[in-house]
Structures are given as structure tokens and as C-alpha cells.
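[Automated response] Your request has been received and processed.

Submitted sequence:
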Amino acid sequence: MSGFFIFIIFVAMMAYIVCLHATLNKLRAENRPFSSWMIWFGLIPITGWVWLLVAQIKLSNAIKNEFVAAGAMGHKNGAIELAIGLVAVSIAVIVTDFWSGALIADSVLWIMYWVAIYRFNSVLPLFSMPDEETPDVKKIEKKDFNSSVGRFHVKNKKDKSVNKWVSVCFSVLMFIASGIGGLIGRDLTERAMGTGHYAAMHRHEQIAKQMNDAAADLNKKAPMMVDSERRFDGAAAVAENGYVMIYYMTLVSISSTEITINQIANQIDVSSLCEKSKEPFQRGIVYTYIYKGNDGITIGSVDISEKNCPK
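Generated structure:
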């Protein structure tokens, strides 16, 4: 993951938490689920992520309670369905080892929840705060109702500095949303056309399967004599950090003390092997021959790849 991408994620999280913090500050103390400053625990790696999932559910429930206490409509359960959905999808992200589909769903739900909280913030507080002149419940006129959240026009002066920060947060949200939209579009295009990351994944899976199939076919024939001196005992395919085909060999009439691995390497016809294995070598596959003496002790191993082939 590039440093720039990490920076963008950090900025987005900062803007998001500022929005949550501002919303918490607009709730009455009795409905506030925790001190508003505690939302900043969300910046702590790993544990902060878990805390945010819990805090979002608590905040949604608090928003609903605030609307109910004020006798206002349009709370839409404080978008708690989105908060719970974020928990479920976040778990799916971990279970699926950060599968791109789960990551996309998580990003979309996060943006939807952020928009919902922004809209609630725009109509809060529903009650006069302690430093205001009027202790009564604010007069709320239903101006417009959105099917997803609900929007109200509040006839009262708001804290301009808080609204300014919320507006900045929403601007950052739109920037992040456009960036995520671009990433989603590129991901879907690469998936459909089999290019980029998906092309590399497909190539890796194809090579790994061919290697595993070849090793399985060879193992069905093992053990078998390659010539009068060498016995093939089995094969294994490794496709993790590169591609390696391992061949286990035994010298049936020579012990491990009678020959060195360099002597064995000098006896291998590399030119002939390169001619027969041209395609596997071009794919980056390395052949590793592990030799044992007739006493069962390993002598050593010889690696042969495209770089050993004559130009």
C-alpha cells in the first residue's frame, strides 16, 4: 500500500471523526452515550477500528433518542441499520482476507453512514444548549423529508464554527467518495477485462495449478530409476515466493561421503534441460534437485533456472 494512499485514508478518518465528534457535542448530556472526546480513540490502530464500530451503533441510538425526546419525526432510527451493516461487512472483510468485494461494500456503507450523520448534524441540536438564551425545545418545522434520513429546517441560530467544520468534513467526504468510486470502477474494469491485478492473479493460479498437476503425475510413477545410478523418489510444487519444482533424487550406489554436490551439478546436462524446459523457465519456474546418497543422508541441492541456460 503506497504512502499516499495511507495518507488519504488517515485524512478521511480525521474528517470522519471530526463529523462524529461535532454530532456528539450537539446531543444533550443525558442522551450522549459517552464523552464526545472519546470518539478520537478511533484513530488507535486495530482496537480503534473496533471501538468505532461500537461507537457508531451507540451514536445512532443516541440520535434516535434525541429526536424522540424532542417529539421530532424523521430520526429513521439514527441510521442504526447502516451502523449494524458496517459491523457485519467489516467482519466479512476480515473473514474473507480483505476480499475486494467485501472492501467495496464496506466503503460504500461507510460513506452512506457518513452522509447520514452529516444530515443529522445539520439539524442538531434539537434542544437549546446551556449557553443559549432560550431553555425551551427548539421549534422545528418539517421542511423536507428524504427517504433515507429526513431533513429538517431549524428556526434557530447555530454554532457557525461547528457548522463550518462539518461542511469541511462533508467536502472531504465527497472527495473521498469520488476517489473510492474511481478505485471501484478500475477494480470492476480490471475484473471484467482480466487485466492488472486480476491478470496477475489468474496467471499465478494457472502456473500453480500446472505445477501441482505435474508433481502429482510424477509422484504416481515414483519411485523410478532415471538411469543406472539415479532414482527419482518424488516431487513437490511450491508457488508462494516464486515458483519452484522440487525433485527428490537418490544415488543408489554412492554414499553421501563419496561425492559432493558440485560434482553432481557438473554432471547435469544443463543445455539439454534448458531446451526441454524452455516454456517453464520463461514463466519463472526454478527446478531444484535434492540429492541423497544410498545411506539416506542429503548431499545437497542444485537449482536450475533460465539464468543458467546458455544465451
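Summary generated for your ticket: Residues 160-193 form the longest helix (34 residues). The CA atoms of residues 10 and 143 lie 36 Å apart.
If you did not submit this request, please reply to this message.
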